[in-house]
From TrEMBL:
One Pfam family named in its UniProt record: Aminotran_3
UniProt cofactor(s): pyridoxal 5'-phosphate
The reaction(s) this protein catalyses: (8S)-8-amino-7-oxononanoate + S-adenosyl-L-methionine = S-adenosyl-4-methylsulfanyl-2-oxobutanoate + (7R,8S)-7,8-diammoniononanoate
Name listed for the protein in its UniProt record: Adenosylmethionine-8-amino-7-oxononanoate aminotransferase
Amino acid sequence: MNLSEKDILYNWHPYTQHKTAFPHPVIVKGEGVLLWDQTGKEYIDAISSWWVNPFGHSNAFIANAIYKQLTTLEHVLFGGFTHEPAILLSEKLAQILPQNQKKFFYSDNGSTAVEVALKVAMQYFYNKGQKRTKIIAFENAFHGDTFGAMAASGISFFTEAFKGSLLEVIRIPVPTPENEKEVFETFRKLVETKDYAAFIFEPLVQGAAGMVMYAPETLDELIRISKANNVFTIADEVMTGFGKTGKNFACDYLIEKPDMMCLSKALTGGTIPMAVTSFSQEVFDGFYADDTNKALFHGHTFTANPTGCAAALASISLLLTQEMQDNIQQVNVQHKAFEQRIKTHPRVKTTRVLGVIFALEIKVENEQAYYGDLRNKLYAFFIENGIILRPVGNIIYILPPYIIEHVHLEKIYSVIEKALEEVY
């Protein structure tokens, strides 16, 4: 029995209907932007393996930091103890995040980072003797798969089976020039009820919705309305964080700053699962009391894992180099050039670019399912042509490692152009 057969026998993969799925390529090696399967076939990782590998695979600098930490202190519980890597990482995050972010809570992944933020928002008001149990989120948002994060998400087929078992969340449209006045008015009426603990959002780009983008000015206004009505704001930067939008964080485009931020994915450069939820001092102070019951009783076994912290410190140091910042801008330049040549294609409806993110919407006669026939044909076509892309319905997006070279980006672009001609 080969590895592929064993995989089918034993493993349950995420977001996969195994009855209709074809066997998954067995990846045996990664280096830079490339991956190789057991047959020797080469793939360009055009989505940074779900947005986590900005510095490419098998990055020696991060690997050496992990090795050094493993031979010193691989793990110690964070309940009742602390350690240097967590202290240094929090100090570094305080330097690069918006200045109002003062306290850092560590967990395991993007979903748990969101869970922590939602629980903190609701318990804050409980500690104050107020009952605020509702959340506001955008339509078609995606914040994760744990129960609180799932409730805040708006892509229905992900959550359909769990209706009635979730937090109460009211969803508003993503603001556009056409609807923003109506959105602001609806939002203002909601927060004025004092029923809502928080407004959670993916700042500027809704990733899983197909890289839907909206203007920082509209998000600034929603944050201002929230602050005026004592509703916490939660920026889910799990996808956008650490350079994806052209700035270190999408919130760096904003004048107003959120009360909480959720970070994961690229935090450790794609090496070790880890997440952070950051908070303003005001939020933390709502739990700072003589009453033990007002503490945040939430934790994870691997909270602030020293090895993960070492990986994150190495990853952030790479991000902040001038070379990497230049790489991000160069990818953006190439995306914009590709946008100019592809946006007039007869099968292209819209295109959009922000930082290293490129998205293209294909014209279709009927609405496409998230994992529908067109998407599946496109995905299979890209894999066949040695490109790892995961279309969302009729939307193709690119989110490559920052170290990608011109020749590899051009191959991605040319395969997308080929797909527009051959996949129907």
